[in-house]
Amino acid sequence: MRNQILLIEQAKKGDAEAFYHLIHQKKTELYRMAYVYVQNENDAVDIYQQTIIRAFEGLPKLHDPTYFSTWITRILINCSKTYLSKQKNVELVEPVHIENLRSMSHSNIEEHLDLWQALQLLDEKYKTVLLLRFYQDYSVNQIADIIQCPEGTVKTHIRRGLHMLRQQLKGAYIDEWVQSVERNN
């Protein structure tokens, strides 16, 4: 963490190499989040690049270096939302890799796809918090910082989103998954 803060301070002063090291640490996470929003590699790369440009230009305005991760994730989400508002008919698609599918049983693949399809049907506010919480493993506090709303609202959106998933799927595997998630929150 100390090294990251030093890199942020150097990047704020215009050190492009320090900025590159910061972004390099986050590239997989940022790309995956963009891909989840826009559903194809080319658009995800475009959003990722736009995020990097905006972050580099806005970095001097970042007051607290400890919030770098949430700050850049917020930029990425805003870039993704802007893209989606221009592309009204785009649906979310999970970036599933072939090697992951090969290691899954047939029933696990079906459960995984059913869950993902149900997630796509949720309102954006529920979908966003669930993606950040369970696919990116952010804490409620971090999600509140990213989407700029109170922690109580994030918790409510998570609960309501999970409830909506349960209603859509009404299957044994989703009930077990939701119950385990609710115990962890």
Notes on the structure:
With 185 residues, the chain is mainly alpha-helical. Helix 2 (16-38) packs antiparallel against helix 3 (41-58) and helix 7 crosses helix 9. The chain has 2 domains: 2-86, Rna Polymerase Sigma Factor, Chain: A (Orthogonal Bundle); 105-184, Arc Repressor Mutant, subunit A, CATH 1.10.10. 77% of the residues lie in helices and 0% in strands. It is built from 10 helices and no strands. One of its GO terms (biological process) is DNA-templated transcription initiation. Residues 113-162 form the RNA polymerase sigma factor 70 region 4 type domain. Belongs to the sigma-70 factor family. ECF subfamily.
Salient structural properties:
Rna Polymerase Sigma Factor, Chain: A; Arc Repressor Mutant, subunit A; 2 domains; 10 helices; 77% helix
Give the SSE map.
Blueprint: H1 2-12, H2 16-38, H3 41-58, H4 68-86, H5 98-102, H6 106-120, H7 124-135, H8 140-147, H9 151-169, H10 172-184
Protein name: RNA polymerase subunit sigma-70
Organism: Paenibacillus paeoniae
InterPro entries: RNA_pol_sigma-70-like (IPR039425), RNA_pol_sigma-70_dom (IPR014284), RNA_pol_sigma70_r2 (IPR007627), RNA_pol_sigma70_r4_t2 (IPR013249), RNA_pol_sigma_r2 (IPR013325), RNA_pol_sigma_r3/r4-like (IPR013324), WH-like_DNA-bd_sf (IPR036388)
Overall domain count:
2
SSE order:
HHHHHHHHHH
Net shape: globular
SS element count, helices? 10
The CATH architecture of the largest domain: Orthogonal Bundle
What fold name goes in the CATH topology slot of the largest domain? Rna Polymerase Sigma Factor, Chain: A
Intertermini distance:
25 Å
Q: Please identify which CATH superfamily of the largest domain we are dealing with.
A: RNA polymerase sigma factor, region 2, helix turn helix motif
Poorly predicted runs:
89-93, 95-102
Q: pLDDT average, as an integer?
A: 79
Strand content: under 5%
